[in-house]
Amino acid sequence: MSVRESLQANPVVPVVVVNSAEEGVNVGKALIAGGITTAEVTFRTAAAPEAIAEMSKIEGLNVGAGTVINAEQCERAIDAGATYIVSPGFSASVAKVCRERNVYYLPACTDGTHIMAALEEGLDTLKFFPAGAMGGTATLKALAAPFPQVRFMPTGGVSAANLAEYLALPCVLACGGSWMVSSALVKEGKWDEITRLSAEAVEIAKEAQA
After folding, report:
1. Is the pTM value of this prediction over 0.70?
2. 19, 104, 108, 187: which has the fewest Cβ within 10 Å?
3. pLDDT in tens, the chain (210 residues)
4. Annotated catalytic sites, by residue?
5. Can you count the helices (H) and strands (E) in the chain?
6. How far apart are CA 184 and CA 129, in angstroms?
7. Quick one: DSSP state of residue 172?
8. Reduced to 3 DSSP states, what percent helix, strand and coil does the chain have, rounded to the nearest 5?
């Protein structure tokens, strides 16, 4: 499955921060129960590699690694079982590792210079981060004009309130967000609430893309 096919099948990509593999597994099961079949586990905590490894065992869950900023992290994430890599910016060294290991890469690109660098690496499906701070849908519409071949996954400032607005844009394949897996919900073990918010996000996505 290509990156575009994967994102079309998973138009809502939860950005997950966990402090243990156990938390990760509970989050993963809650997401699946809510109809979300992917999770971007950030490399912001020491637990990330183990969490990715354990979450990858959950049937039907596609697990990637986020906040990957260098080649060493990228190697560790892929070794742990990450099937895709997401970065807060563009890194040629991370792109090289992903290319060599046949794992797709979603770097964040918010201007023409970085989009062109990504295109030179053969990447035409990109993260747009921080979406809200960088002008949201207005900026995406502007970038879509000179780069009609590019598709985006906006992340940062995306919520249930504006998810449909983003997904309605032809240049947007999916949206990343943490509102359904907030740190507070994870810390308090509110797995049922994560499932409820996930199901709500899936329904919003279905209606927006109908």
Report:
1. yes
2. 187
3. 788 888 888 999 999 999 999 999 999 999 999 999 999 999 999 999 999 999 999 999 999 999 999 999 999 999 999 999 999 999 999 999 999 999 999 999 999 999 999 999 999 999 999 999 999 999 999 999 999 999 999 999 999 999 999 999 999 999 999 999 999 999 999 999 999 999 999 999 999 987
4. 40, 127
5. 10, 8
6. 22
7. B
8. 45, 20, 35
